[in-house]
Design brief:
It is a single chain. With 120 residues, the protein is an alpha/beta fold. It has helices at residues 25-34, 56-62, 80-90, 107-110, and strands at 8-12, 15-19, 42-44, 66-69, 93-99, 114-119. A six-stranded mixed sheet has the order 1-2-3-4-5-6, with helices on one face. The longest helix is centred in the C-terminal third of the chain and has 11 residues, at 80-90. The relative contact order is 0.15.
Length: 120
């Protein structure tokens, strides 16, 4: 089901964004096979930046300036280190956006409080 997620390309105010939904390896390979190489300003990492959505060929194919990873910091499935290693090759900068749960609040409340970490 994740591989059926839409990939949305947005061009707005002289900036380009690629939002990849929950796509994983199969659909990311299909994207690189079907679309010409491009450059985007911002890539929202596929599948929240988890390992299952990390594809080095895809990242190189879209050549982002920024990669936003929203998976949090679960080391068991987070692909942050993979993106960090690749960032030097594609000259990208990384942002990790982590929702913080406080006092047992529900998920809607978590989305309103973010901690951002930047890797240069």
């Amino acid at each position: 089901m994740n591989n059926a997620s839409a990939i949305l390309y947005i061009s707005f105010a002289n900036r380009t964004f690629l939002i990849c939904g929950d796509n994983e390896q199969e659909s990311l390979r299909a994207f690189t096979d079907r679309w010409v190489e491009m450059h985007v300003d911002v890539l929202l990492a596929p599948h929240h930046g988890q390992q299952s959505g990390f594809n080095a060929g895809f990242v190189k194919h879209v050549d982002p300036d920024w990669v936003i990873i929203s998976s949090g910091s679960r080391k068991d499935c987070d692909a942050y280190d993979n993106y960090a290693n690749l960032a030097h090759q594609v000259r990208a900068r990384l942002l990790r956006v982590t929702g913080r749960r406080q006092n047992g609040q529900n998920n809607e409340a978590v989305a309103q409080s973010f901690c951002v970490r930047e890797l240069v």
